[in-house]
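Worked example

This section walks through a single chain of length 73. The input is the sequence exactly as stored; nothing has been trimmed or padded.
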Amino acid sequence: MGDLIYIFVGWSYLWIRYRNKKTIAYILNEKYDGDYRYVGAELLLSAFGIFLIIILGAFLIIVIGRAIYDLIN
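Given that input, the structure is written out below as tokens.
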């Protein structure tokens, strides 16, 4: 089931970004070994990484802000 999601996301991403069959075929073969699954996996995992960095940054800001607030009061 996960492979189908990766394939769909990879296919959709390449078609939205390039919109040319020859360019898509070239990019797919050169960068992703001819498999849409690798495109989808890279895209979803990078999005997940960005999401985690944002969550950790917010957590860090909250912890530091709370520590400063407790020191002041």
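What to look for: Helices lie at 2-18, 21-32, 36-72.
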